[in-house]
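Recap quiz, item 2
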Amino acid sequence: MSQRANYYEEELDDADDLADVGLNLTIGNYGQGGLYEDGMPRIDEATLLAMQQHVAQQVAFAQIPDVVKRFIIQFNNAIVNNNLQEITACYENGWNKLTEQFYPKIEWPEAEIIAPLVNDNPVFLILYRELYYRHIYSRLSPNVDDRFHSYENSCELFNYLLNSDGPVQLTLPDQWLWDIIDEFIYQFQSFSLWRSKAKAKTEDELMMLATEAESTGGSQLWSCYSVLNVLYSLVQKSRINECLAGVKEGKTEAEIQQIAGEYGSKPLYRMLGYFSLIGLLRVHVLLGDFTLALKVMDNIELNQKAFFTRVTACHVATYYYVGFSYMALRRYNDAIRTFVSILNFIGRMRQYHTRSYQYDQIHKTAERMYALFAICNCLSPSKLDEQILSNAKERYADQIAKMSLPFTATTPPNSTTPAVENAPEEKPAPATGALAAYSELFLFACPKFITANAPPYNDTEALAAYIADVPEEPAVRHLSLFLDDIRARAEVPTLRSYLKLYTSLDASKLAGFLERDEEELVQLMMVMKTASRSVTRMNNEGTLLDGQVITTTDLDFVINENMVHVVESTINRKYGGWFVRNTEHAQRVYDALKASPLPITKTTAAGGVEGEPKPTVQEKETKPRAANAPWGASTRKVEFAA
Amino acid sequence: MSSSATKSWLKPAERPEIIDTLINGVDRYNPSNVGILEDYLYHQARTNEYDCLANLAILKLYQFNPDLYNVDVVVNILLKALTATPLPDFNLCMALLSERPGGPSGDDVDAEHDPNVLLPILSSLSRNLAECRFPAFWMLYRDDSLTHLRENFTVEVVGFEDGIREVVVKAVKSTFTKIGVARLGSYLDLSGDALEEFISAVGWTLDQNTGTVSIPPNPDNTIQATVVRESITLPQLAKLLAHAQSVA
């Protein structure tokens, strides 16, 4: 431990010089001190340990398996030579294979131990440490030093990219660039969650956090400002927003290069800028700012041709956070459409990606999106995609059954006086079956919300008060806001089941069914009406936040004084999809038969034709409206007067 | 079809250029701009304008810089958001008012300005509106325990009560074609001449004999049964059929 601490002591001196250049050009630090104002206690006996350390390093070096040494040399050469193919091979195969073989449960050799192998190439060592810490976060559990040092390394990396003289001559695969941004935010999120748990800290950790908080004007380490700074700096350097706007306007590639400037015209910066936008989407959601989250996506189109589809993990993350933001904005139809689109995509690519090391993560996100889809679909039933619906039912049958149950939201109904909330502090009624199911799915599937600020580690008294009365976890707060909306809609399913039976009935009679008085009933009807109208983005027009009000239910009603009139829209059975699916099935059977080694084999291979109907389906499915009629049929509305 | 329901929410026509530039750029994170945004909020309160995104930008600054937290501003923002119901504005604001209301130092504030007292009250008011329990809203709002809220805050927000009545009008006109005048009065917290004036101001008509108010048809209170039928034309199947032919 002391070895590593000492090593970073030396490293930090260099870092301080870099900090002078300033990563802070974008949004400034606002009096919160430099990025590298790290309060690491200096260990004076470091010099005494130097000799021992040297020996220890040599021992550690000798212990590195030869194949790993060769790999590191090869990896370094690939990076020095900017050989993208080689880098990709090392990154995607070599590293993972050797991790499995030699470091499944232990750390890779520390950077300073392998430094002699790569002639102390600083760029390689930064990238190496990026991988080194990522490995610790994903396979082992990071300790407080890892958390501090991984932040420092991230800063070094971004400083190198942003504050060198002009754009750096480095080429990295898209996947790695995404992983850098993704991991940066993940470590930020992980640190914030760890930091907020003040109770379970050791003396050492408390001391480090306290010193850190003392540093010039407040904690900078993994602070919201420093993280946003990096992301916005990358966005601005690459001029990615201007480029995307240019693409939208139909500018030529040459014009785009012109707009992009010396940084943005390099794939490295362009991709980093682009991924930073997705990163901002994620950070804003984590902090509970759902409008701002969708706002940063203003220039990004959500479709299968978008940039982000180049990296599957990025593609999936984008839809997850966009879908969740729509949910928070109570735009359940938009959320459903978003989830359906990506879940279909994941379903299709499942067969190709099972071996990928990212598959686990994608699979987990998909499960969470099925849960969110189930929630949205209970709140705003839609028949957008039968397949996804039945997949969701397969997974969360219990919860869906409970969520569809009628439940009483507010204080038990009092049949004589309208329910009046006199006590403002009144706690919500205890969760019933339905609310419990909503809560369960929400907490399982929501992002790992974080708090923006640290507990007061530098003030023992305040910290004690904090620990004595720990604030609600952010996820719990967001849940209770979400449940407010659910509670308001609590009676909608019940009302609906009665209304379906009538074309008109007296309000007092309906009230009798629900064991409410008429006034309460009328208020519930207004809630139902409001709940059946929703803002939705139409035909991908405008930005993600744009939309129009649509009716989201097939059952509509109106009250004429005391008489409720009901009409229902019917959707006839759809044969088209069935026809196409069976045609495709027949084709597959036919192809399989032709391909099987029967006595009479024809030379014309069947494989060529097999793929053809499929692209048709994919292409059409990008238009969600037509999803249930994949070959492009439209549904026509035939209207009758009531 | 082309008119967007979110247009004025995303960018109200009254929003000054300087605010627009501010909240759409990275300068929105600069704590020294909080004053500009707060002034704009008080301007909204005085002139009965509303700009949700600009107000969220204030709350964002409070989230990152707890020492900026100003309870008066927060209450004003939330009152404004109440009048936007059934849009989710109130909860969007609450989502940013994270952690501990009032920030780290919550001891030296008096009860009338204690966010720990005020915010739950506002949440109750918001729930009543979201659940369309309008009489309950007014009863709570007029309650003696909320005197300080009315005297210190809502009085400063020009058109607050009319803003709430706007929320009522939205709910009523989409649900009813006719409504009893007494019921409407209890929703609007109005009676007698004031109620009649209000009814004619929104273009509804009161029938004194039957005691009912007629609400003119609008897309939401005009209900229609529809049948959605699938319609497939031959050209749409052309690809499939052509393919079938080529295989055979």
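Strands of chain B lie at 176-180, 205-207, 212-214, 226-231.
The longest strand of chain B covers residues 226-231.
End of item.
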